[in-house]
Write a structure and sequence with these properties.
7 strands; 7-stranded mixed sheet; alpha+beta; about 180 residues; globular; about 30% helix
Length: about 180
């Protein structure tokens, strides 16, 4: 059964801010840590990301409709500086699936798979790095389903996080593709 088509485009911090504001303040986005954000806070945050050389935000579309947020970053310069020793080709990633009243079975796994496909489409990407909250058990299971291997817990300023890595080979193996 096909879930549909996923595409990813650059996020427009001003045009997409209202949509993002609804997503990041939804109770299901608690781990995004923007529950009390005002619209202007979201605009400011994504304007900051848009201006950053090493951090990028994208809007994911499902059959042409906005469905998820994706961020990529260079862990040598953003998020994980001083918390681990990055390898050449490491790319950090965050993703957030939009809240919905009509859940589709397997949708979130399809989203993270599309995100990983996008990141590994760049031949320079050798390993994807994530640092979700240690309490976010649902995302840990999703990460492992696409090939992430937990390495250790780390202390970030805003949370205790589970540092995990996924190589291109691990991702392909998790998808059942011979390497």
């Amino acid at each position: 059964m096909s879930i549909g088509t996923f595409t990813i485009r650059a996020l427009d911090p001003l045009k997409d801010a209202e949509l993002l504001h609804r997503w990041v303040t939804d109770p299901k986005a608690a781990f995004w840590m923007m529950q009390d954000a005002k619209l202007q806070d979201v605009e400011r945050e994504y304007m900051r990301i848009a201006a950053h050389e090493h951090h990028h935000a994208f809007l994911g579309l499902h059959d042409g409709e906005p469905a998820f947020l994706m961020e990529s970053y260079d862990p040598r310069h953003v998020e994980l500086v001083g918390l681990y020793e990055p390898d050449p080709g490491d790319v950090g990633m965050h993703f957030l699936v939009a809240p919905t009243d009509r859940p589709i079975h397997g949708f979130t796994k399809a989203v993270i798979t599309a995100v990983m496909d996008e990141l590994f489409a760049d031949p320079r990407t050798r390993r994807v790095v994530v640092e979700p909250d240690v309490g976010n058990k649902a995302v840990h299971a999703l990460n492992e389903a696409v090939g992430f291997v937990p390495v250790r817990e780390i202390d970030k300023p805003e949370k205790r996080a589970l540092l995990s890595f996924c190589t291109r080979e691990d991702f392909l193996a998790a998808r059942g593709v011979a390497v």
